[in-house]
Backbone:
């Protein structure tokens, strides 16, 4: 997904669509920002408080009304959730591109030719790569993409958020996604060890018997 072309088309539609007002545009750009952070997945989850804060919308009614309108007008797909821990799901629809900008490789005059950059996607990924998650929603989305437990995502975020994202309280985390993988492996290991320990305890029999007690 070429997000520069996408944004260019967005601004064209913003200019042409008379139904839009500044609040709709502000909300859309806030959603695009989070989509950017999550590396442009097909769908992603949002936190109402964070989106309202970024889009400068102070009314919940206005926020929900604008979300619905953007969905009705085919800018996004809005899938509301009644679960406060999950958040609503958003799919930003890919807008078409125009052919107005032409690449000219043959001209050698003073007019500068446009050269396609094959590394643009890689550069974009490097720019938006985050050492630490922006919020709990991003962590939950990552865990879900790996088919890991949402509850473990919340435990992982709460734990490292409380200790300043440091391993052992001393070493700063460089790659939080790798740390999340280690968290899941450690959790699975603990569960396995607990299960084995419980089975061993069930097999134990007491050598001290009290024959005075009635059968």
Residues:
């Amino acid at each position: 997904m070429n997000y520069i072309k996408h944004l260019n088309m967005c601004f064209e539609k913003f200019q042409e669509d008379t139904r839009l007002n500044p609040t709709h545009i502000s909300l859309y750009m806030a959603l695009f920002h989070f989509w950017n952070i999550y590396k442009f997945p097909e769908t992603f989850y949002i936190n109402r408080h964070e989106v309202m804060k970024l889009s400068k919308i102070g009314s919940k009614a206005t926020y929900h009304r604008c979300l619905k309108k953007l969905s009705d007008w085919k800018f996004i797909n809005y899938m509301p959730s009644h679960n406060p821990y999950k958040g609503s799901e958003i799919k930003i629809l890919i807008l078409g591109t125009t052919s107005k900008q032409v690449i000219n490789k043959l001209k050698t005059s003073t007019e500068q030719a446009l050269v396609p950059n094959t590394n643009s996607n890689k550069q974009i990924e490097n720019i938006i790569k985050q050492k630490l998650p922006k919020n709990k929603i991003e962590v939950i989305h990552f865990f879900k993409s790996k088919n890991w437990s949402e509850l473990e995502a919340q435990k992982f975020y709460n734990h490292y958020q409380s200790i300043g994202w440091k391993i052992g309280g001393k070493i700063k985390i460089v790659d939080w996604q790798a740390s999340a993988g280690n968290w899941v492996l450690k959790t699975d290991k603990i569960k396995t060890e607990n299960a084995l320990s419980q089975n061993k305890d069930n097999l134990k029999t007491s050598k001290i018997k009290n024959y005075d007690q009635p059968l």
